[in-house]
Amino acid sequence: MLTRKGLFSIYTSKNLEIIHRLLSTKVVKELKLPKRKNATIKEKEVYKHFNNPEGKVAHSFPETFFVKKRGKTPDNFYIASNLAASTIANSIKKDLPADKLIMEINPGIGLLTEKLITETDNDLFLYEAHEQLFDKLAIILHKSQHRKISLKQCDFIGLWKMGYLDKLDDGNRVELLFDKIQRKEFDDDTCARLFACIGSAKFFKDFINSIIFQIGFSAVGRFEMFLCLPPPIFIQLAASPSAGYFLYRPTSVLFQLLFEYEFISKIDRKHFLPWRATPTNSPKVGKILLTDFDYMYLIRVVPRRNLFQYCTPNHLPALWFYVKQHLSSRKKQVIPTLERWIPGCGPRLIVNAKPTKKPEILYPCTDGNSLPSFVAPSTSLIVNDFVDNINIFTQFGNLTPTQILTTFNEFINWPEYESCAFVDVLEKALIKMHTRPEDADDVLSDDDNEDDTKNFKEES
């Protein structure tokens, strides 16, 4: 029987029966990958790779995890190599406080889990979406009953769906998911270190919204996240204005304002399952999707601890709407657009006597050739980063995130703000948002109306 310290937090009776049955039987021999007739070139390549001595560690995965049919990038990836697990574990345990909770999303067959158990003494919470992977995890947890380890079945990457259902029926699904995590204030220390392999940009949109509206897992506090993700997702999130409207979108600006982020390293994409399908030769997104296609990026992301010093919680929804409204097109001009909200405000931006200060780079990249030149480093927040020589032709798409934050700070502090049309439109947008899911209007896709790939090609 399990000891009280060996926590298996799996809340359905069916899952609990699986755990007990697995722990009372002998471990079966790992299955070999099947040799299919008429296998595709991709399948043959996958099977060849994972039939070498290093790759056989991944044979515990179900066959369906090895080959991804052509289509969209999967929402979740799994570590399928001890080498990748070691690289990630070294980053997670670096300067790790002894009392810091570690959360692992979709641990799969537990390659990283075993290293975290062996190399740290921290409490460990696991969130796995696929029940067919519980058998391997159950064996690992049974060997570590002296540790506080929790396992829950949850599609963590699809957390936004749970949040939307909670909004429809006034439920508490998200709250129950974090019921064992000690809540902290947003400006306090982080609640946990979290690791996940992510293939969906919607995860970041949900995380942004959770901070803006202080709901979901941001209501628990801040999480220090170590993430593995395909390069195109990070390239869009960290894009600078020089990348052009095709990449530099509202999500890019909000991500860079709300989070500190650090690029750590590249890891061979063959160490993760399922393998990503080769992108189509689209004239608009093909080159972007092929950037560093043979790798996954390991990054560190954490919400800014001092965020509320630069934008108070009650003004965060206005910042969110301000960015989405004014970055919907790169060609929107700053002064004419703001004068539609507050007539005659333009001269206040042009004739500005306030001192200008530029933000500082927080995590300089040690290798200048490791990332595309248009990927912006994380910088400090600042509200007096005024645009040099601003005029009526200056476009929002040319402003950096801190410059956009500066114009927003000026805008909400003008005396006409409270009675201007912007406030009314904002209230209507918030009502609309709470009655239906938000559209993915700035996720990298091949259906954008504004063809602005010239800057990308020049920078590449």
Unreliable stretches covering 5 or more consecutive residues: 1-16, 24-31, 445-460
Number of helical elements: 18
Structural class by sheet pairing and helices: alpha/beta
Radius of gyration, Cα only, in angstroms?
24 Å
In one word, what is the shape?
Answer: globular
> What is the helix fraction of residues, given as a range?
25-40%
C-alpha end-to-end distance: 59 Å
Reading side by side through the largest sheet, how are the strands ordered?
A: 4-3-2-5-6-9-7
How confident overall, as mean pLDDT? 82
Tell me the number of strands.
9
**Fraction in beta strands:** 5-15%
Main β sheet profile: 7 strands, mixed
Order of helices and strands: HHEHEHEHEHHEHEHHEEHEHHHHHHH
Annotation keywords:
460 residues; alpha/beta; seven-stranded mixed beta sheet; two-stranded antiparallel sheet; disordered N terminus
Note down, in words, how this protein is organized:
Helix 10 packs antiparallel against helix 13 (316-326). The strands form two sheets. Strands 4-3-2-5-6-9-7 form a seven-stranded mixed beta sheet. 34% of the residues lie in helices and 11% in strands. With 460 residues, the protein is α/β, with parallel strands linked by helices. The radius of gyration is 24 Å and the shape is globular. Helix 5 (134-142) links the parallel strand 3 and strand 4. Mean pLDDT is 82; it is low at 1-16, 24-31 and 445-460.
